[in-house]
Amino acid sequence: MPTKPLDRLMFVQGGLCFFCKQPLPKAEASVEHLFASSNGGSNNDENCVACCKSVNALLGSMSLKEKFQVVLNQKGQFKCPNSVTSTKTATPSKKPPKAPSVAKTKDDKFAFVVANLKRRGNSKPRTLKTLTTTIASLYPKGLSKAELASLLQQLQSTGKVTVKENKVAYSL
Ligand SMILES: [Zn+2]
Fold it and tell me: What sections of the protein cross the membrane (predicted)?
């Protein structure tokens, strides 16, 4: 049997994150004390699970009750905050093979997004994440990932949006 706690737990869990059940590269893995060690939880394997660093950081020293709540709130679809799945599967096939559709439509979309952001005054999205969801929500019929990415790209390349450490600044 592997001797390090993390190795042991990973072995027991079949190399998957305890929470999201995604393959867990060792670089992303960490040991989560279910009953936090700061609250007197033991270091025994029975109190520990291997999981994504992100969710470990999130759970931190929450009480067991709070942790249960976090887990139950996911309704069985638990995804760690920065789930490793995307990096694993998405990279090669991220860009659709199709050539981008008519440039005019793209520019129209861009103008529409800029106009919408302008209208928001002081309540513009502050983080890249909310900006992304905001733009996506402007297109209830759906916006492909490539289109969304290209709009974000265009916002930045035209200097209308500056992203620094996930914080977004505007000069519209
Ligand atoms: Zn995970």
Answer: none
At 90, the pLDDT band (50, 70, 90 cuts) reads very low
Alpha carbon of 163 to ligand 1 centroid (Å): 27
User: Which residue ranges make up each domain of the chain?
Assistant: 5-92, 103-170
Q: 103-170, which class in CATH? A: mainly alpha
Ligand 1 center to residue 22 CA distance, Å?
6
Query: Taking residues 15-30, what's their average pLDDT?
Result: 94
Average of per-residue pLDDT values in the chain: 85
Q: Which helix (H) or strand (E) holds 29?
A: strand 29-33
* d(CA 132, ligand 1 centre) in Å: 23
What pLDDT score was predicted for residue 89? 47
Find the 172 Cα to ligand 1 centroid distance in Å. Answer: 38
Q: How many Å lie between the centroid of ligand 1 and the Cα of residue 56?
A: 9
CA R_g for the chain: 21
- Ligand 1 centroid – CA 91 distance (Å): 19
For residues 92-118, give the mean pLDDT. 71
The architecture of the domain spanning 5-92 is Orthogonal Bundle (1.10)
Look at residue 39 and tell me whether its pLDDT is greater than 90: no
